[in-house]
Amino acid sequence: MRILITGKGGTGKTSLSAALSLLLSEIGFKVLALDTDSTPNLAQSLGIDPSIADEITPLAMNDELIRERTGVLPGSGWGAIFKLNPKVDDIIEKFGVKINDNLSLVVVGSIDASKQGCLCPAIALAKRFIRYSLRRFDGFVIVDSEAGAEVFGRGLAENFDMMFTICEPTVKSIKISRNMIRLAKQLDIKRSIVVVNKVIDNELAMKLAENIISGAPIHIIHYDDNLPAIEYNGYGINKLPKESRFMIDTKQLIDKYILIES
Ligand SMILES: Nc1ncnc2c1ncn2[C@@H]1O[C@H](COP(=O)(O)OP(=O)(O)OP(=O)(O)O)[C@@H](O)[C@H]1O
Ligand SMILES: [Mg+2]
Fold first, then answer.
1. CA distances in angstroms from 170 to 90, 175, 208, 249, listed in the order given
2. Which of 14, 45, 32, 149 is nearest to 102 (CA)?
């Protein structure tokens, strides 16, 4: 199953991606987590020490790899002719960070041409790798996307089975998720679920979301004091107690929408 995580900035995309990846891998599924943020931090949320996480070069920034695979060094000017079908089938093995026996992370970096500042070989390589993973990886693929990301571009989006669009219990944030659902529908992503995160008042949040969202299930994740505490120390989601609200609510999300489908 291929799962895309979208939503407004700061709503909890990376925390949810990490929790889903860790929980699914602990159940025994093979999981590949892909970080496509221009300032990637999924590694830290998966429990990698921040000083080590900082040393990981995202694929889209790995000039040597890009040159080797596409034939062009990034920044070598407009009009350079590069291979559009670079080799990517060894990238998980070579650049994947093993989080546990069942879970690997590949830090892809931004696939947004406007953020990378070019329509360049880096993006060609990154997108080809993501497409390859979505089509060929034997297990769950979880993609932590950047707010309003290029991940909706042609050739990628249609490979997802499910989108969790995460929002806070505010009108603005929920409306962004509503837009994501529209996009996902147009792009043939089979199923979308709205995750309202950081909820304090369950009833109020549900009412607010139901007023704005139609045609997609809504799942609540409660505000959890443990998250600011682990973030303060630079720890990952793996340090959250299993009985913490965030983990319980994410586990319910898995039971309700993922395990039933897979
Ligand atoms: N349920 C929750 N309770 C309390 N804090 C939370 C909860 N979910 C996420 N947070 C906190 O919200 C902040 C943003 O979370 P996170 O980095 O996962 O969001 P994001 O959507 O990936 O952000 P960005 O758009 O910058 O990538 C973090 O400090 C995180 O610990
Ligand atoms: Mg994030």
1. 43, 9, 8, 19
2. 32
The pLDDT tens digits of the residues spanning 71-110 come to 887 776 656 677 778 899 999 999 999 999 999 999 999 8
Residue pair 127/156 in contact by the 8 Å Cβ criterion:
yes
The pair of structure tokens assigned to 139 is 């297990």
Instruction: Indicate which residue's Cα is closest to atom 10 of ligand 1.
Output: 12
Residue 61 DSSP code: G
Indicate if ligand 1 lies below 6 Å from the C-beta of 197.
Answer: yes
The amino acid that residue 127 corresponds to is: K
Each residue's pLDDT tens digit, 156-176? 888 999 999 999 999 999 999
Residue 197 alpha carbon to ligand 1 centre in Å: 9
CATH classification of the domain holding 201 = 3.40.50.300
- Number of domains present in the structure of the chain: 1
For residue 83, the CA-to-ligand 2 centroid distance in Å is 30
How far is 207 from 210, CA to CA, in rounded Å? 5
Q: Is 15 in the pocket of ligand 1 (CB under 6 A)?
A: yes
192 lines ligand 1 (CB under 6 A): no
Ligand number with the minimum distance to the CA of 18: 1
**Containing domain of residue 134, as a range?**
2-258
* Nearest by Cα to 10 from 230, 214, 170: 170
pTM, entire model = 0.95
pLDDT tens-digit series, residues 57-75: 999 999 999 999 988 877 7
In ligand 1, the atom with minimum distance to the C-alpha of 245 is 1
The encoded tokens of residue 6 equal: 């979208």
Question: Residue 50: pLDDT above 60?
Answer: yes
CA pair distance 30, 21, nearest whole angstrom: 9
